[in-house]
Protein backbone atom coordinates (compact mmCIF):
# COMPACT_ATOMS: atom_id res chain seq x y z
CA UNK A 1 0.00 0.00 0.00
CA UNK A 2 1.37 3.42 -0.82
CA UNK A 3 1.37 6.53 1.32
CA UNK A 4 -2.14 7.46 0.17
CA UNK A 5 -3.59 4.63 2.28
CA UNK A 6 -5.69 5.97 5.13
CA UNK A 7 -6.22 4.53 8.57
CA UNK A 8 -6.87 0.81 8.89
CA UNK A 9 -10.38 1.14 10.47
CA UNK A 10 -11.51 3.43 7.63
CA UNK A 11 -10.11 1.04 5.03
CA UNK A 12 -11.82 -1.99 6.58
CA UNK A 13 -15.10 -0.07 6.79
CA UNK A 14 -14.89 0.77 3.09
CA UNK A 15 -13.93 -2.80 2.18
CA UNK A 16 -16.84 -4.26 4.13
CA UNK A 17 -19.37 -1.82 2.73
CA UNK A 18 -18.28 -1.70 -0.90
CA UNK A 19 -16.18 -4.71 -1.88
CA UNK A 20 -18.74 -7.08 -0.32
CA UNK A 21 -21.00 -6.11 -3.22
CA UNK A 22 -18.39 -6.98 -5.82
CA UNK A 23 -19.52 -9.44 -8.47
CA UNK A 24 -15.94 -10.35 -9.40
CA UNK A 25 -13.98 -10.50 -6.17
CA UNK A 26 -14.52 -13.27 -3.65
CA UNK A 27 -14.96 -11.79 -0.16
CA UNK A 28 -15.23 -13.79 3.04
CA UNK A 29 -14.74 -12.92 6.72
CA UNK A 30 -13.45 -15.58 9.10
CA UNK A 31 -12.96 -15.55 12.86
CA UNK A 32 -9.88 -16.57 14.82
CA UNK A 33 -10.85 -20.26 14.53
CA UNK A 34 -11.21 -20.03 10.77
CA UNK A 35 -15.03 -20.16 10.82
CA UNK A 36 -16.86 -18.15 8.16
CA UNK A 37 -19.02 -15.25 9.22
CA UNK A 38 -19.95 -12.90 6.36
CA UNK A 39 -19.36 -13.76 2.70
CA UNK A 40 -20.43 -12.08 -0.50
CA UNK A 41 -22.57 -13.48 -3.29
CA UNK A 42 -19.55 -14.09 -5.53
CA UNK A 43 -17.98 -16.38 -2.92
CA UNK A 44 -21.22 -18.24 -2.21
CA UNK A 45 -21.94 -18.64 -5.92
CA UNK A 46 -18.46 -19.96 -6.56
CA UNK A 47 -19.03 -22.65 -3.95
CA UNK A 48 -22.72 -23.18 -4.68
CA UNK A 49 -22.37 -26.95 -4.32
CA UNK A 50 -22.16 -26.38 -0.57
CA UNK A 51 -25.53 -25.96 1.14
CA UNK A 52 -24.13 -23.90 4.00
CA UNK A 53 -21.38 -21.30 4.21
CA UNK A 54 -21.86 -19.28 7.39
CA UNK A 55 -20.43 -20.99 10.43
CA UNK A 56 -18.46 -23.50 8.38
CA UNK A 57 -14.65 -23.68 8.51
CA UNK A 58 -12.96 -22.11 5.50
CA UNK A 59 -10.95 -25.32 5.20
CA UNK A 60 -14.12 -27.03 3.87
CA UNK A 61 -13.84 -24.86 0.76
CA UNK A 62 -10.15 -24.14 0.33
CA UNK A 63 -6.87 -25.84 1.18
CA UNK A 64 -3.54 -24.35 1.92
CA UNK A 65 -1.35 -27.09 0.62
CA UNK A 66 -0.43 -28.05 4.20
CA UNK A 67 -2.56 -31.10 4.86
CA UNK A 68 -5.84 -30.34 6.63
CA UNK A 69 -4.55 -27.12 8.20
CA UNK A 70 -5.51 -23.78 6.66
CA UNK A 71 -3.36 -21.12 8.27
CA UNK A 72 -4.53 -17.55 7.82
CA UNK A 73 -2.25 -14.69 8.66
CA UNK A 74 -3.61 -11.18 8.29
CA UNK A 75 -2.04 -7.81 8.78
CA UNK A 76 -0.83 -4.68 7.07
CA UNK A 77 2.86 -5.35 6.83
CA UNK A 78 4.55 -2.23 5.47
CA UNK A 79 0.99 -0.99 4.88
CA UNK A 80 0.27 -3.99 2.62
CA UNK A 81 -2.24 -6.79 3.36
CA UNK A 82 -0.85 -10.31 3.66
CA UNK A 83 -1.19 -12.41 0.47
CA UNK A 84 -2.27 -16.05 0.58
CA UNK A 85 -2.42 -18.66 -2.17
CA UNK A 86 -5.15 -21.26 -1.58
CA UNK A 87 -6.19 -24.25 -3.69
CA UNK A 88 -9.53 -25.90 -4.22
CA UNK A 89 -9.74 -29.18 -2.34
CA UNK A 90 -9.47 -31.15 -5.54
CA UNK A 91 -6.39 -29.17 -6.45
CA UNK A 92 -7.83 -28.01 -9.74
CA UNK A 93 -8.04 -24.28 -9.05
CA UNK A 94 -5.76 -21.76 -7.42
CA UNK A 95 -6.94 -18.65 -5.56
CA UNK A 96 -5.06 -15.58 -4.47
CA UNK A 97 -6.42 -13.78 -1.39
CA UNK A 98 -5.33 -10.68 0.50
CA UNK A 99 -6.01 -10.92 4.24
CA UNK A 100 -6.92 -7.79 6.18
CA UNK A 101 -7.05 -7.85 9.99
CA UNK A 102 -10.48 -7.23 11.55
CA UNK A 103 -11.57 -7.26 15.18
CA UNK A 104 -12.67 -10.89 15.23
CA UNK A 105 -10.29 -12.41 12.68
CA UNK A 106 -9.57 -11.75 9.01
CA UNK A 107 -11.27 -10.26 5.99
CA UNK A 108 -10.20 -12.16 2.86
CA UNK A 109 -10.54 -10.61 -0.59
CA UNK A 110 -9.44 -12.65 -3.57
CA UNK A 111 -9.77 -13.96 -7.07
CA UNK A 112 -9.39 -17.15 -9.02
CA UNK A 113 -5.70 -17.11 -9.90
CA UNK A 114 -5.60 -19.54 -12.82
CA UNK A 115 -4.60 -16.59 -15.00
CA UNK A 116 -1.04 -15.36 -14.90
CA UNK A 117 -0.27 -15.02 -11.22
CA UNK A 118 1.71 -11.83 -11.75
CA UNK A 119 -1.35 -10.16 -13.29
CA UNK A 120 -3.56 -11.21 -10.38
CA UNK A 121 -1.00 -10.06 -7.82
CA UNK A 122 -0.77 -6.69 -9.54
CA UNK A 123 -4.55 -6.31 -9.60
CA UNK A 124 -4.80 -7.28 -5.96
CA UNK A 125 -2.04 -4.85 -5.07
CA UNK A 126 -3.95 -2.09 -6.82
CA UNK A 127 -7.10 -2.93 -4.86
CA UNK A 128 -5.69 -1.48 -1.66
CA UNK A 129 -4.77 1.74 -3.46
CA UNK A 130 -8.24 1.95 -5.03
CA UNK A 131 -9.85 1.42 -1.65
CA UNK A 132 -7.73 4.13 -0.08
CA UNK A 133 -8.91 6.52 -2.75
CA UNK A 134 -12.48 5.44 -2.07
CA UNK A 135 -12.03 6.14 1.63
CA UNK A 136 -10.54 9.54 0.84
CA UNK A 137 -13.49 10.35 -1.43
CA UNK A 138 -15.90 9.13 1.25
CA UNK A 139 -14.26 11.37 3.82
CA UNK A 140 -14.46 14.33 1.46
CA UNK A 141 -18.12 13.63 0.71
CA UNK A 142 -18.93 13.18 4.40
CA UNK A 143 -17.14 16.44 5.19
CA UNK A 144 -19.10 18.26 2.49
CA UNK A 145 -22.35 16.72 3.74
CA UNK A 146 -21.50 17.75 7.29
CA UNK A 147 -20.80 21.30 6.12
CA UNK A 148 -24.08 21.35 4.20
CA UNK A 149 -25.94 20.05 7.24
CA UNK A 150 -24.29 22.70 9.41
CA UNK A 151 -25.28 25.36 6.89
CA UNK A 152 -28.87 24.09 6.74
CA UNK A 153 -29.01 24.02 10.53
CA UNK A 154 -27.67 27.57 10.69
CA UNK A 155 -30.24 28.72 8.14
CA UNK A 156 -33.01 27.04 10.14
CA UNK A 157 -31.92 28.94 13.24
CA UNK A 158 -31.23 32.34 11.70
CA UNK A 159 -33.33 35.25 10.56
CA UNK A 160 -32.34 35.55 6.88
CA UNK A 161 -32.29 39.35 6.81
CA UNK A 162 -30.42 40.22 9.98
CA UNK A 163 -28.43 37.09 10.75
CA UNK A 164 -29.74 37.10 14.31
CA UNK A 165 -31.47 34.13 15.90
CA UNK A 166 -34.99 33.71 14.60
CA UNK A 167 -37.95 33.60 16.98
CA UNK A 168 -38.16 29.81 17.17
CA UNK A 169 -34.48 29.26 17.88
CA UNK A 170 -34.36 32.14 20.37
CA UNK A 171 -37.22 30.60 22.32
CA UNK A 172 -35.50 27.18 22.34
CA UNK A 173 -32.30 28.72 23.66
CA UNK A 174 -34.14 30.88 26.17
CA UNK A 175 -35.91 27.83 27.62
CA UNK A 176 -32.61 25.95 27.96
CA UNK A 177 -30.70 28.91 29.38
CA UNK A 178 -33.50 29.77 31.80
CA UNK A 179 -33.50 26.20 33.16
CA UNK A 180 -29.72 26.36 33.49
CA UNK A 181 -29.89 29.68 35.33
CA UNK A 182 -32.55 28.47 37.77
CA UNK A 183 -30.77 25.18 38.47
CA UNK A 184 -27.50 26.97 39.26
CA UNK A 185 -28.95 30.11 40.85
CA UNK A 186 -27.61 32.39 38.12
CA UNK A 187 -29.06 35.78 37.19
CA UNK A 188 -30.76 36.22 33.82
CA UNK A 189 -32.25 39.35 32.32
CA UNK A 190 -34.35 39.91 29.23
CA UNK A 191 -34.52 42.98 26.98
CA UNK A 192 -37.34 43.58 24.50
CA UNK A 193 -36.69 46.19 21.81
CA UNK A 194 -38.86 47.88 19.20
CA UNK A 195 -37.72 50.42 16.62
CA UNK A 196 -39.76 53.61 16.92
CA UNK A 197 -42.04 54.88 14.13
CA UNK A 198 -40.78 52.19 11.77
CA UNK A 199 -43.67 52.75 9.37
CA UNK A 200 -42.22 56.19 8.66
CA UNK A 201 -38.98 54.54 7.58
CA UNK A 202 -40.79 52.34 5.08
CA UNK A 203 -42.99 55.20 3.87
CA UNK A 204 -40.03 57.48 3.21
CA UNK A 205 -37.33 55.08 2.08
CA UNK A 206 -39.29 52.05 0.93
CA UNK A 207 -38.88 48.49 2.09
CA UNK A 208 -35.24 48.46 1.03
CA UNK A 209 -34.63 51.34 3.43
CA UNK A 210 -36.54 49.50 6.14
CA UNK A 211 -34.41 46.41 5.61
CA UNK A 212 -31.22 48.49 5.75
CA UNK A 213 -32.34 49.94 9.07
CA UNK A 214 -33.08 46.51 10.53
CA UNK A 215 -29.70 45.23 9.38
CA UNK A 216 -27.95 48.25 10.89
CA UNK A 217 -29.60 47.72 14.27
CA UNK A 218 -28.85 43.99 14.14
CA UNK A 219 -25.20 44.81 13.53
CA UNK A 220 -25.26 47.08 16.55
CA UNK A 221 -26.73 44.29 18.69
CA UNK A 222 -24.11 41.81 17.50
CA UNK A 223 -21.28 44.20 18.28
CA UNK A 224 -22.46 44.95 21.81
CA UNK A 225 -23.65 41.64 23.29
CA UNK A 226 -21.39 39.20 25.13
CA UNK A 227 -20.66 35.59 24.21
CA UNK A 228 -23.08 34.35 26.88
CA UNK A 229 -25.91 36.53 25.55
CA UNK A 230 -28.22 35.82 22.63
CA UNK A 231 -30.01 38.35 20.48
CA UNK A 232 -32.83 37.57 18.09
CA UNK A 233 -35.37 39.09 15.78
CA UNK A 234 -38.90 38.37 16.92
CA UNK A 235 -40.47 39.69 13.75
CA UNK A 236 -40.96 43.00 11.98
CA UNK A 237 -39.03 45.67 13.82
CA UNK A 238 -39.07 43.85 17.18
CA UNK A 239 -35.91 42.40 18.69
CA UNK A 240 -35.09 40.53 21.88
CA UNK A 241 -31.97 39.90 23.93
CA UNK A 242 -31.28 37.69 26.94
CA UNK A 243 -28.26 38.24 29.14
CA UNK A 244 -26.98 35.43 31.34
CA UNK A 245 -25.31 36.34 34.64
CA UNK A 246 -26.61 39.88 34.31
CA UNK A 247 -28.91 41.47 36.89
CA UNK A 248 -31.54 44.12 36.17
CA UNK A 249 -29.09 46.99 36.62
CA UNK A 250 -26.49 45.54 34.23
CA UNK A 251 -29.11 44.77 31.61
CA UNK A 252 -30.61 48.27 31.95
CA UNK A 253 -27.20 49.84 31.44
CA UNK A 254 -26.62 47.68 28.34
CA UNK A 255 -30.02 48.71 26.98
CA UNK A 256 -29.21 52.34 27.68
CA UNK A 257 -25.99 52.09 25.67
CA UNK A 258 -27.83 50.46 22.79
CA UNK A 259 -30.48 53.20 22.88
CA UNK A 260 -27.86 55.96 22.64
CA UNK A 261 -25.88 54.22 19.91
CA UNK A 262 -29.02 53.57 17.88
CA UNK A 263 -30.04 57.21 18.06
CA UNK A 264 -26.60 58.12 16.70
CA UNK A 265 -26.80 55.75 13.73
CA UNK A 266 -27.69 57.20 10.36
CA UNK A 267 -28.28 54.11 8.20
CA UNK A 268 -30.31 55.95 5.53
CA UNK A 269 -29.81 59.70 5.59
CA UNK A 270 -27.63 62.09 7.55
CA UNK A 271 -30.72 63.99 8.65
CA UNK A 272 -32.91 60.97 9.45
CA UNK A 273 -32.64 59.47 12.91
CA UNK A 274 -34.14 56.14 14.00
CA UNK A 275 -34.67 55.49 17.70
CA UNK A 276 -35.68 52.44 19.73
CA UNK A 277 -37.64 51.71 22.90
CA UNK A 278 -36.63 49.08 25.47
CA UNK A 279 -38.33 46.99 28.13
CA UNK A 280 -35.98 45.27 30.59
CA UNK A 281 -36.71 42.75 33.33
CA UNK A 282 -34.98 40.06 35.37
CA UNK A 283 -35.85 36.43 35.94
CA UNK A 284 -37.53 35.60 39.24
CA UNK A 285 -37.22 32.24 41.05
CA UNK A 286 -39.54 29.63 39.57
CA UNK A 287 -40.59 31.87 36.70
CA UNK A 288 -41.25 30.57 33.17
CA UNK A 289 -39.94 31.93 29.90
CA UNK A 290 -43.47 32.94 28.90
CA UNK A 291 -44.10 35.13 31.96
CA UNK A 292 -40.64 36.68 31.61
CA UNK A 293 -41.37 37.60 27.99
CA UNK A 294 -44.82 38.98 28.81
CA UNK A 295 -43.41 41.25 31.51
CA UNK A 296 -40.61 42.53 29.24
CA UNK A 297 -43.14 43.16 26.48
CA UNK A 298 -45.41 45.10 28.84
CA UNK A 299 -42.45 47.26 29.89
CA UNK A 300 -41.55 47.87 26.24
CA UNK A 301 -45.02 49.15 25.49
CA UNK A 302 -44.88 51.37 28.54
CA UNK A 303 -41.69 52.86 27.10
CA UNK A 304 -43.44 53.51 23.80
CA UNK A 305 -46.54 54.94 25.52
CA UNK A 306 -44.40 57.30 27.58
CA UNK A 307 -42.74 58.89 24.57
CA UNK A 308 -40.46 56.24 22.98
CA UNK A 309 -36.66 56.35 22.74
CA UNK A 310 -36.32 55.26 26.37
CA UNK A 311 -35.58 52.29 28.60
CA UNK A 312 -38.01 51.10 31.26
CA UNK A 313 -36.67 48.42 33.58
CA UNK A 314 -38.56 46.67 36.32
CA UNK A 315 -38.28 43.44 38.26
CA UNK A 316 -41.17 41.10 38.99
CA UNK A 317 -43.49 42.55 41.63
CA UNK A 318 -41.86 45.96 41.62
Automatic annotation (TrEMBL):
Listed SMART domains = GGDEF
**What is this enzyme's EC?**
2.7.7.65
Which reaction is this enzyme known to catalyze?
Answer: 2 GTP = 3',3'-c-di-GMP + 2 diphosphate
Q: Pfam families of this UniProt entry?
A: GGDEF
GO-annotated molecular function: diguanylate cyclase activity
What positions does the domain GGDEF occupy?
Answer: 186-316
InterPro entries annotated for this entry? Diguanylate_Cyclase, GGDEF_dom, Nucleotide_cyclase, Rev_trsase/Diguanyl_cyclase
Catalytic EC class: transferase
Cofactor requirements of the protein: Mg(2+)
Superkingdom classification of source: Bacteria
Q: What is this protein called?
A: diguanylate cyclase
